[in-house]
Write a structure and sequence with these properties.
The complex is a heterodimer.
Chain A (H helix, E strand, L loop, with lengths): L13 H13 L7 H16 L3 E8 L2 E9 L4 E3 L4 E2 L4 H9 L3 E3 L12 H8 L1 E11 L2 E11 L7 H43 L3 E6 L2 E5 L1 H7 L11 H5 L4 H16 L4 E9 L5 E13 L2 E11 L1 H51 L3 H33 L6 E4 H10 L2 H6 L3 E5 L5 E4 L1 H17 L8 E8 L4 E7 L7 H4 L20 H11 L4 E6 L3 E9 L1
Parallel strand pairs in A: 14-16
Antiparallel strand pairs in A: 1-2, 1-7, 2-3, 2-4, 5-6, 6-7, 8-9, 8-12, 10-11, 11-12, 13-15, 16-17, 17-19, 18-19
Chain B lengths: L3 E7 L3 H14 L2 E7 L2 H13 L7 E4 L8 H9 L9 E5 L4 H7 L5 E6 L4 H8 L2
The chains are: A alpha+beta, B alpha/beta.
């Protein structure tokens, strides 16, 4: 038998026509599963050609794998064993070259007899009409129409019908594959948007210094609506970077763009619409054309938690560093102050031992008593300082600023009157602060008594107490005097140190300002001084509301 | 035997000065002893002596830890003055900080460091009496 030629004037029978229309309509129904469609194809073939079996096979690597098989006698769909493709060279050559293998007697046909013992005889098949299924010109499968027992002469109409069905199958397979890719794409897009929508990380694309894309989650994090960030310029982005980092970041980026670096990374804080700052780590990927960057793609990672932890650690570290330094200073002070007393006592005792003169001995004894007193006094001061450091856990309470300052001054009313001191308290009635009252009173007491102690010999002391609001929760309180002043170039770094006095006053023990500083720090504030010899001093300390 | 016609003690600790004067009087080589309460007072005294062309003290005992102008500040300011090389200074302190003791050697005007507490024989040895 030879391959048949298809006549130019195909005429479907009415039955063929009806079946094809039905199949064609089915192919438009999106919900039809591909397995169902294979069922329809094989059943339509069996019905339309009045044959026993129809099957669809796919060529997977070196094997023909049965995808769907309908057997009219069994009335059901089943599958058949795989067939090795290399056993069928003539069969495949024929499929490659033509549009169908038409075998009226399959067991003797040149192209199908290779299947005689493995397939045809076991299945009782006598007639075959096989059509290749192609994708992009290569065979991907075979549509097989098979008949048993009686000799079947395939008509041109049969061939045309089978060919039409094969064409529909090809279209359906392509459509199915496309839908599968689409589904995959939708799925991966959904996964991606799940990541970007719920992540605080983000993507930003700049083209010609203008934002052309920002991932929705990042945009939302910054508090902007969809259209607000389109056409956001690079300059506008820079204006949102924290002042502490903006110059560094600008320099870093320009430096890397100049070098045409493809990838680089930097950290900074960026302000959202509501002026809230976020810590980001941006990894930039940059595309260049003719030496100019065209696309600037950012993967922006949220490092707020990390940064906050870092800042906390840094803060703790610097606190412990300061504490260590204080402790070391304190140890030196203790050792020095105790040593200076004990060394005096040692010298006195030696002198006492060396003399027999009773008058001299008595003199030394008096000195010894004095030294002993000084030593006890020193230890008492040190003890006061230590307990101050230990008591920082005292409860803070809310007090009215003006009334607590006035209360602090009551204790020194007599001195104020006797020394003809003018104290101006320029503080609004409605300021409340959270503080430890005893500490606060001690700060005011020390600063005011200091101002009086070191008054100018030329005029009556005037002391002014002011307050300035620095931030929403922070106040600065200034105590300004017109006294002797302190030589800042000589003593600026030691004013708040222990046992430092600057005026050689006999009753100055050098503890007042040291204690004051400790009190301010225990309340969480800082203290500073500005002063000019002969004009006066201004002590400023901060407090929290 | 070395004789010291004029001796300065620059120290804020009145008790130490009393004791030290006793010790010096026992050594008998010190005629006039003047106590100056801190570095600033000592510095202005020396400047006045220079301006009036008076004699400088033969020896100065300088404490380190003092109010107003401490021993280190005194030595720093002295560096700028024209008569710095005409003085013989001994730093006398109860400090046991090795860095401070070492620092004394950096000043050419400082002849030696005397550790408090001290006594007659130790002083004699250091001063070469």
């Amino acid at each position: 038998m030879k391959k048949s030629n298809i006549s130019k004037n195909l005429l479907f029978t009415q039955k063929h026509f009806d079946l094809l229309v039905q199949l064609y309509q089915n192919s438009f129904v999106d919900t039809v599963l591909v397995a169902d469609f294979y069922n329809i194809i094989t059943e339509t073939l069996v019905d339309g050609l009045s044959i026993d079996r129809a099957s669809y096979w796919e060529l997977l690597e070196d094997r023909l794998v049965c995808i769907n098989l309908f057997d009219k006698n069994k009335g059901c769909h089943s599958l058949s064993n795989d067939i090795q493709a290399r056993d069928l060279p003539n069969y495949f050559q024929a499929l490659n070259n033509g549009i169908a293998i038409v075998a009226d007697d399959a067991r003797t046909n040149d192209y199908t007899k290779e299947l005689k013992y493995s397939y045809l005889i076991p299945n009782g098949i006598t007639d075959m009409l096989d059509l290749p299924i192609r994708e992009n010109g290569s065979i991907t499968g075979v549509l097989c129409c098979e008949h048993r027992d009686q000799t079947r002469n395939w008509s041109e109409s049969d061939l045309a019908f089978a060919k039409a069905i094969a064409d529909i199958l090809i279209v359906m397979i392509a459509q199915y594959k496309r839908r599968k890719t689409e589904l995959k794409l939708i799925d991966s897009e959904r996964k991606l948007s799940l990541i970007t929508d719920n992540s605080t990380d983000g993507f930003v694309v700049f083209e010609n210094s203008i934002v052309t894309y920002i991932s929705p989650s990042y945009r939302k994090l910054l508090g902007y609506s969809e259209n607000e960030l389109q056409h956001f310029s690079l300059q506008e982005v820079y204006s949102h970077i924290h002042p502490d980092e903006v110059e560094g970041v600008r320099e870093f980026i320009n430096e890397h763009l100049a070098k045409q670096a493809a990838n680089f990374k930097y950290e900074f804080r960026i302000k959202g619409k509501l002026d809230k700052y976020f810590w980001r780590e941006d990894t930039a990927s940059v595309l260049y054309e003719h030496g100019q960057y065209t696309k600037y793609i950012l993967i922006s990672r949220d490092i707020t938690a990390q940064k906050n932890a870092e800042i906390k650690i840094q803060k703790l570290y610097s606190i412990s560093k300061i504490q260590n330094k204080k402790l070391l200073d304190f140890t030196h002070i203790i050792s020095h102050n105790i040593r200076s007393n004990t060394s005096n006592m040692a010298m006195i005792i030696e002198l006492m031992a060396d003399t027999t003169d009773e008058v001299e001995k008595k003199e030394y004894f008096e000195l010894l008593k004095e030294s002993n007193y000084k030593l006890s006094e020193t230890i008492q001061y040190l003890n006061d300082t230590i307990s101050l450091k230990l008591n920082v856990k005292q409860q803070k309470v809310v007090v009215n600023l003006k009334s607590i300052i006035e209360k602090s001054l009551i204790g020194i009313n007599v001195i104020i009157r006797n020394q003809r001191v003018l104290v101006n308290v320029n503080i609004a009635e409605d300021i409340f602060i959270r503080t430890i009252p005893s500490y606060f009173e001690s700060i005011i007491f020390n600063l005011v008594t200091n101002a009086i102690k070191y008054k100018s010999p030329h005029c009556d002391p005037i002391i002014t107490i002011n307050t300035t609001k620095i931030t929403a929760q922070q106040y600065r309180i200034s105590v300004i005097d017109n006294g002797l002043g302190i030589d800042m170039t000589r003593n600026g770094d030691k004013i708040f140190g222990m046992y430092k006095t600057f005026h050689g006053n006999p009753d100055a023990v050098g503890l007042g300002l040291f204690m004051t500083k400790n009190h301010v720090e225990a309340l969480g504030g800082t203290i500073a001084v500005s002063s000019e010899v002969g004009i006066g001093s201004e002590f400023k300390f901060t407090l929290y509301e | 035997m070395n004789k010291f016609d004029l001796t300065y003690i620059v120290d804020d600790d009145a008790i130490f000065v009393s004791i030290f004067k006793k010790i010096l009087s026992k050594i008998q080589n010190f005629s006039e002893i003047k106590h100056l309460k801190n570095g600033a007072i000592a510095l202005s005294d020396l400047k006045k002596r220079f301006d009036n062309k008076q004699v400088f003290p033969d020896i100065i005992f300088l404490d380190l830890n003092m109010p107003v102008l401490d021993g280190w500040q005194f030595l720093e300011e002295l560096k700028q003055l024209p008569f710095k090389n005409q003085l013989a200074i001994y730093v006398i302190s109860s400090t046991i900080d090795k860095r401070e003791i070492k620092k004394c050697r950096k000043y050419k005007t400082v002849l030696n460091f005397i550790q408090k507490p001290t006594n007659e024989s130790q002083l004699k040895a250091i001063l070469g009496i």
